[in-house]
Amino acid sequence: MARARQQRFWNRIAARYAARPLKNPAAYEAMLQAVAARLTPEQRVLELGCGTGGTAIRLAPGVAEWVATDFAAGMLDIARAKPGAAAVRFVLTDAQAAFDGGPYDIICAFNVLHLVDDLQGLLRAAHDALQPGGLLITKTWCFADLPWQMRWLFTLLRWVGLFPVARMLDGVGLRQAIQAAGFAIVEERVFGEYPQNPYLVAWKTGA
Q1: What domains appear along the chain, each with residue ranges and CATH number?
Q2: What rounded mean pLDDT belongs to the chain?
Q3: Largest CB tally within 10 Å, which of 28, 83, 91, 108?
Q4: Torsion of CA 197, 30, 176, 60, to 10 degrees
């Protein structure tokens, strides 16, 4: 039921989400550059929760294959209609079930880990789907670290259907979950004004 509610939410807001201007274009461009610096032409990349595909379309030309997944058909309809979409293979699937077709060299999860039901299970599946030494690149909202006024506002917006159901992660818990799944965090950065939305790069260890 929670998954169905999430799908309805994202399908309902897809057009509005796609039309919304970036709040911080400079921070977004800096993040794209950081990810691009990790890419090489022979790599296979899996993206979880690609939304309307903007990041995938920008980065896909730098790799051999970019598979972008989302569980909201409305989001993918918009993604597939964008210029440059032919460079990306868009797949309709839940993030928890997106790992068929591996192994991958890199798995990207931008602003999606706080939305999944089973975070630890997803991270373990990502670990299993990566090549030895592969990378998990994430950017995740840690809502539990936000000021209480913002947490209260998001709760109110969720009650009226304007905000998705989201896990109240904190930064410590996020890092511990990534490490418990067998990753070593090798880079931490913040793009933009919110340290509660960290960008993390984690390397697949042998664990």
Answers
A1: 2-141+172-204 (3.40.50.150)
A2: 90
A3: 108
A4: 110
Handedness of CA 202, 57, 114, 121 (dihedral sign): negative
Burial of 71 (0-12, 13-18, 19+ CB in 10 A): buried
Range 116-134 average pLDDT:
95
